[in-house]
Design goal:
The complex is a heterodimer of chains A (484) and B (449). Chain A is an alpha+beta fold and 484 residues long. Chain A is built from ten helices and 23 strands. In chain A, helix 1 runs parallel beside helix 2. Chain B starts with a helix and ends with a strand. Classes of the chains: A alpha+beta (484), B alpha+beta (449).
Chain lengths: 484, 449
Amino acid sequence: MFDVTEAAVEGALAAGASYADARVVLTRTQLVTARDETVESVSQGEAIGVGARALIGSSWGFFATPETSTAAARRAGERAAEIAHASALVAGSGRGPALAGLAEVSPVVAHWESSYEVHPLEVSLSEKADLLLEATTTMRSVAGISLAEADATVWDTEKWFVSSEGHRISQRLAECGASMTATAVGDSETQRRSYPGIRGQYGTQGWELVRGIDLGGNAGRIAEEAVALLHAPPCPAGTADLILGSEQLALQIHESVGHAIELDRILGWEAAFAGTSFLDLSQLGRFRYGSELMNVTADATLPGALGSFGYDDEGTPAQRVDIVRDGVWVGVLSGRDSAGLAGVPAGGMVRADGFNRLPMVRMTNVALLPGDSSLEEMIAETDDGIFMDTNRSWSIDDQRLNFQFGCEIAWEIKGGRRGRMLRNPTYTGITPEFWGSLDRLGGPGEWAFWGTPNCGKGQPSQVGHTGHPAVPARFRGVRVGVAG
Amino acid sequence: MSAELAVCDRALEIVGPSGAAEVRVSTGRRSLTRFANSLIHQNVAEEKCSVTLTLIADGRLARASTNRVDDDALRALVERTREAARLRPPDPDWPGLAPRAPVAPVDHYDRATDEASPRQRAEVVAAFLAAGAGMSGAGYCQTTSEVTGFANTDGQRLAGRSTQATIDGILRLGSADGSGAQTAVDLASLDGAGAGEAAASRAALGAEAIELPPGRYEVILEPACVADICQFLVGYGFNAKMHADGRSFVHVGEAQFDAAVSLWDDATDDRAVGLGFDAEGTPKRRMPMVEAGVSVGLVHDRRTAAKAGTTSTGHAIGGGERFGAYPTNLFLGAAGDAGSGGAPASRGSRDEVVGAVTRGLLVTDFWYTRILDPKTQVVTGLTRNGLFLVEDGQVTRGVRNLRFTQSYAGAVAPGHIKAIAPDARLVNSSAFVPSLHLASWNFTGGARG
């Protein structure tokens, strides 16, 4: 496929581009869903195409087509250049970075593949269906359960990338994961329990990930919890010391750290849709994001994590970047153009959702590094608090400051012991204040690599795969129990 | 015969007599000119193609898709789908294929929009930005087209096409954002300057925003907010699958909404966009859900309809087995309009609607709305791109954004709608709705938590 990508780059250069790159991407997907005692759907997708990017002056253009002949690819490069010309029609168009303004990276010629024990596409659909049906049948057998659902998803992605600077990179990534949910319907509300989390668990791994999470072995437990929640007292309203399980904390990291540190947001490029950020580059290295316990990295090299890869979609090698060190904001997520504009090194964090989408800044594995406590220790050290687990709802403002999360389940903590189950738990806060109240972190043994396969961003919309290694943590004096 | 239908026929020919099958082939273009900091920073275009095959053999159903239409790709698609079907258990709830049925003459299509150039989109963007002197602009102008063919082995054969054009952006003045948006079938109908003027006036009014304490306020929700409410009501309420699961708040036949309003879906309306048939090949038709405050019907795909002993309402969506049916051409208007086919009516002018508010908030848009429980319809989210204080019938000043936690069903329950404004417009290509004056809205937090 390198002949196709090269033709696209040549087409763009011939049409006047000072820089061009192109990607051919072949994506195979597989989704199996089960509901109660039946397989609900089996669907498979396959898509291939070429996307070309052209820079003329300081204006960009991008064009994509599913045709992968060299002639079609060359035309795609030419069209990208035409579009770049049109970008200059709005007075002053261009963000400044011409080629000289792109953060420099050394051209790479390489091939990279993610590792796996069992490629997820080599596992039969019948085995996948059986695994899901075992889980849903077990959940449905619990009295009071109205609905049992499970699903498994596989992505197999091959990419060929070429740039006018000399990059020539091929990659293949295998990703997969699974989830299940038990729903109990009451007279006036519904309760649900999900496992391993609301979105399941996903990674850049083989089918061993799905086998390892043991859906069947956890199905009965979560179903019983869903039924019990219908009769549990509601989460009280007020201020409480809050302990979060690592799955919920992963989403807290995603929403209130990961998106806030995206350099394109900080620069205003997402202002109308995804939003901006409360962070200002002038504060980099000085702004106190949270307590001294807070250490966050963006690490695309973590084996098996969903936000890992070999090279990003601009050809920059995967890397680890410090984001928050001892509570102080020190790093951003960036691509070559945003880094060039901001005067920071290219972070290698630009990815596209397929051949037909423009690469943009995406989270890799935005990880909260572990501490030295544990969930049990935290509970034992909490006199009066609430432990919330498993995300249920999520909402945060367009600057990533004001958030409100709901969890599926909670337990009150009294005198260092886990007490009554609580239903409809919610908590709300302001990002730096919340992270400033962090005072306990689970240890390395509780560090879980949560994967988020549905991060939305961009126009046209793009879905990104991100990872969030996290541990249980405690926060002091958090507002809880917000109700409608 | 369209090229898309020819591909459908070829795919069914490859399937042969081995089972029941349906094929949907869509081609088209999507071009999007995106701007930020008053500059075009992302400018993209793509040619689109998708072939989706659903195959049923011995009661076993599978689906697969590709974006290639050559013979080799179609053969591989059929083989992959057949193999998947063979490996799965039988599907006891398969409702059969859509029967042969005529489709209403829906043609929300404009060739000039299909062929629009990046220069034309840039001109709309420039007009939007020019309306905001001294302001920074961000947003996008997009043109899309879709040409679709559908065929199944029971003889249903349909073709349709559609285009859409959108200008949607904000203008920023200090910390204040104001939004303006328009969507139409044709690019020529878009008034970039008009959308920009709306955004600029909101930004100017919000420049010296004050902070208000959380609590319950009367509100005037502009169309973008009302569209959000409608989408939650139908997605989690009038969705027959959610209803069958017991997760819906809807009780057909009960007066669950204010008697002032009706809610319906109608792809055949000239003000709608999109195709005249759904993902299963069922023709779309006018579908009332609320009439004068009374819940009157649910939206079905073939699967939920068969279980309920009724017929599909034409609201199947691609890949919607898990979620269920979803209407994409919503209309909300004054009671009586659902049966008339006329424009959503209002009570007086927009100024009169605002003039009736002694103290309340005017909300331009919502952001990041998420449902806490489908049965209670409690949703949390935030205001965005323009929140204003209304005092003694006048919009007086900007207010800093607030978070709300509110039951959407409760907000439009009997006695809660005080007025319907005469400003209905198409929002997000999927809802043609006006502003509503509601008696109460529960704001639960502000910029400081």
